[in-house]
Amino acid sequence: MSEKSPVLIDVIAGTTYSWCSCGLAETMPICDGTHKQKSDKRSVKFTPEANGQVWLCMCTKTQNPPYCDGSHSHEN
Questions:
Q1: Phi, psi at residue 6, to the nearest 5°?
Q2: Hey, how many other C-beta atoms are within 10 angstroms of the C-beta on 17?
Q3: Cβ pair 56, 25 in contact under 8 A
Q4: So where are the chain's domains?
């Protein structure tokens, strides 16, 4: 089960990452392939344009995947 608060991760420009959209990965927020056996959801690939840090969604409810948009604040 996924956490609600976003997580800050370091990213490298030009590197492709796979964000977990099902919330089942043990490596959240990065996909570990768990969805292949347990969900019909697919990972979301993203490639940052600059080195730095980004806030990635952990609740999987974001409307701007993979980035946190505050949707976790609106859950019950």
A1: -70, 165
A2: 19
A3: no
A4: 7-70
Joined tokens for residue 19 = 């964000």
HSE of 56, CA atoms in CB hemisphere, 13 A:
25
User: Mean pLDDT by 10-residue block, N- to C-terminus, for the chain (76 residues)?
Assistant: 80 97 92 88 95 95 94 75
What is the C-alpha separation between 6 and 34, in angstroms, rounded?
Answer: 20
* Cα gap 31→27, rounded to integer Å: 6
| 39: Cα separation from own chain's centroid | 15
CB 19 within 8 A of CB 29: yes
pLDDT value of residue 35: 86
* pLDDT value of position 76: 53
